[in-house]
Amino acid sequence: MLDFDLAGIYEVETAQLKRAVRRNIERFEGEDFMFELTKEELSRCQFGILNKGRGSNIKYMPFAFTELGVAMLSSVLHSDVAIKANRKIMRAFVAVRQLVLSQPPADEIKELQREMTELKQYIEEVFTDYNDINEDTRVQLEQINTVLSEMQAQNRLPNKPRRRIGFFTDEQRKNKEDIIE
């Protein structure tokens, strides 16, 4: 955790937390308790971007505390809030560690593997059935097209003159009467 996050949790200013750590630096020796971020590491983080305005940029590189460093802070900060916050943080670290280290029992893993195998087999069967249906549908469509083309060929009208529909002019009426007689 970074110093400004811990300062917010402990309800102290970041500068006050850093002063307390620097006065008791022998408690935090070694990187297994705490280390100071470099400018390069800070530039990779979102909060490493410069902000506009006076006093809003980070002047001093933040401290990063490990689980042991957070535990050691309770001996440096002596307020009731710091002690209560430290208890909560330590419980959170323990819960996360237990979560990471706990593995499901072997029989649960075997059960999941068996279920995965069954699902794979089921999916393969479904796809096989789907492909069979597609092949059957394709054959049926070809048969329908063949029958339709045969029916169309049989029902073609012979090329004979058709009767005109509509109004006739006087000349057309005479021609029609001549044809009928």
Question: How would you describe this structure to a colleague?
Answer:
This protein has 181 residues and is mainly α. The chain has a domain at 3-101. It has 7 helices and 2 strands; from the N terminus they run H-H-E-H-E-H-H-H-H. The protein has helices at 3-10, 14-23, 39-43, 67-76, 80-101, 106-154, 170-180; strands spanning 34-36, 63-65. Strands 1-2 form a two-stranded antiparallel ribbon.
Question: What's a quick, concise take on this entry?
Answer:
By secondary structure, this protein is mainly α. It contains seven helices and two strands.
Poorly predicted parts: none
Strand content: under 5%
Biggest sheet, in brief?
2 strands, antiparallel
Mean pLDDT: 79
Helical fraction equals 55-70%
> What strand line-up does the widest sheet have?
1-2
Describe the structure using short key phrases:
181 residues, mainly alpha, two-stranded antiparallel ribbon, 7 helices, 64% helix, elongated
Itemize the secondary structure elements and their pairings:
Layout (H helix, E strand, L loop, with lengths): L2 H8 L3 H10 L10 E3 L2 H5 L19 E3 L1 H10 L3 H22 L4 H49 L15 H11 L1
Helix pairs in contact: 1-2, 4-5
